[in-house]
Design brief:
The protein is of the alpha+beta class. It has five helices and six strands, in the order H-E-E-E-H-H-E-E-H-H-E.
């Protein structure tokens, strides 16, 4: 069962995105469409006391895989262990490359949760473009950051 703190975290995120009434579903998940490019999954685990953020950044591993990109992905794979930052992994069931981030809910304040989620979205947009072969800056598209509604529940 979700407590008021978790409801408050999701409410703060929704407010920052211009979305009212974000809610966790029966599986303690929330799915958001972010612009036209990304879908963000938020999944709470009460056992592990964390929220996982995840987004598909590529539908498959690019072939051929650029050596510099392979090195970058391997370096990023250590982020959750070394820096508590986001990483990219391969879902073997779907062959999707997923950006993900693990956020401990212990002592997590709503403003910090919103900041971490926004930083994750910037990372996911950056990695989506990087994997597609673009050398984009790590930022969300201008159309999203210029006051348009950031997302919608799906």
């Amino acid at each position: 069962m979700l407590d008021d703190k978790l409801m408050g975290l999701l409410s703060a995120l929704g407010e920052s995105m211009g979305l009212a009434d974000l809610q966790w579903d029966a599986h303690e998940e929330c799915h958001l469409a972010i612009g036209e490019e990304l879908t963000l999954l938020l999944r709470h685990s009460s056992e592990e006391e964390r929220i996982t953020l995840a987004s598909v950044v590529a539908n498959e591993v690019p072939e051929p895989l650029d050596h510099a990109l392979a090195i970058e992905l391997l370096e990023h794979a250590l982020h959750p262990m070394a820096h508590t930052g986001p990483a990219v992994g391969l879902d073997r069931d779907s062959d999707f490359l997923l950006a993900y981030c693990l956020i401990s809910t212990a002592h997590l304040e709503p403003t910090v949760f919103v900041e971490k989620t926004m930083a994750f979205l910037e990372y996911a947009f950056h990695m989506r473009r990087r994997i597609a072969g673009e050398h984009a800056q790590a930022q969300m598209p201008e159309s999203i950051t210029n006051g348009l509604q950031l997302g919608q529940m799906v």
